[in-house]
Design a protein that fits this description.
238 residues, alpha+beta, 6 helices
Amino acid sequence: MTPFALPIDYPRIRRVDSFSALVSTPLTDGVNALCWERALAGDYAEVVAALGAGDGEPLMALDAARLRSLSVSAAGRVAIEQMLADWQLLRDHSLDPVLNCIYGYPRDEEAGPVVTDVFSFHADSAPFEASTYLCTYHGPSSEGLRNEEARRRVDLPATRAELLRHYGGADDADFAVYLNEHCYDLHYAPAPGAKPFSFGLGNFWRIATDYPDSPVPPCVHRAPDTQPGDPPRLLLIS
């Protein structure tokens, strides 16, 4: 895999050189994303091919038994053991990772002023201090948006007016609760001229979530806007 070149002009992303640094480096002083850049060995495309078409389901959950039962070459075996090693690193730090082969995500079927599916730029949220960890091994990778180039959709006048019409009330504290309950306040629109960036393949990321009293803004990101014919994704996330 070719290492991904991080945006050199964006100080909110910091490089680290180990998993230990990934989990222990504080997200502070404006930094809301850590990236352990890696060029991984192994044939991840072979693993995807061995998993098959997914029986028509958009997502296949993977575990050690399923992966190690696959008939793959030595390079495929290296890929499998790398994914399982990363999964175990997160487990060893009392996290709850999931490893998936993703054939497609459901789109937001409700017509409304704010789309809330994973293809929309958004921030993850938590009621307490928490981070999101993720790594794409195969297929289109996650995408990020600089906070300075992101606008909360609920703050766009036309969108807010439409949300108020849906809500049927005043722009007050109860309306703010309504926005939060529907996750509308977690979704962002790129500013004119914004330049989203790729998280790259093989890189292990830790990104800031939106939680009370967080010292940094959340990292705005999305699932890649996949098209028919794009390969399935192998994604580890916690």
